[in-house]
Design goal:
The chain has 135 residues and is of the alpha+beta class. It has three helices and four strands, in the order H-H-H-E-E-E-E. The strands form two sheets. Strands 1-2 form a two-stranded antiparallel sheet. A two-stranded antiparallel sheet has the order 3-4. Helix 2 packs antiparallel against helix 3. The N and C termini lie far apart (63 Å).
Length: 135
């Protein structure tokens, strides 16, 4: 046996549905879309690292300013450098944080100065390709 809904009940149900949808629509329209720039988010996150030196923090702030200036900056900027040692393994890793808007850094050059006890100075240059890691 089918039960018929009264017209008052149908109007009541329709009003509840209408008010619910209208409330959701109004709540959704008030919320502004939040666009996140991953490059800026990365710079801002790194600039808040507690282990960075004051000089590195200033460099990160400079990179943020350069990123916001709406021009592509040609010169890369070394933001931070660190050496990490793996315990139990005779291995050290050199980490570099480089700001490069052109994204054309393909390697680094390490300059090493050796001073002989007899006063001779030797300078060695070593070229290394870069492995880039984007988290």
């Amino acid at each position: 046996m089918r039960h018929k809904k009264s017209s008052k009940r149908i109007i009541f149900d329709f009003n509840i549905l209408y008010i619910s949808l209208l409330s959701l629509l109004i709540a959704g329209c008030r919320k502004q879309p939040q666009l996140i720039d991953p490059n800026m988010a990365l710079l801002e996150t790194w600039s808040e690292k507690t282990w960075l030196t004051n000089d590195s923090i200033k460099l990160f702030k400079t990179a943020i300013t350069l990123y916001k200036n709406n021009t592509v900056d040609l010169e890369p900027l070394l933001l931070a450098a660190w050496i990490s040692k793996s315990y139990g393994v005779e291995e050290s890793n050199l980490g570099l944080a480089i700001y490069d808007e052109q994204q054309d850094v393909v390697g680094i050059i390490v300059k090493e100065q050796l001073n002989d006890p007899n006063g001779t100075v030797k300078i060695l240059y070593e070229d290394y390709p870069v492995f880039i890691y984007h988290p």
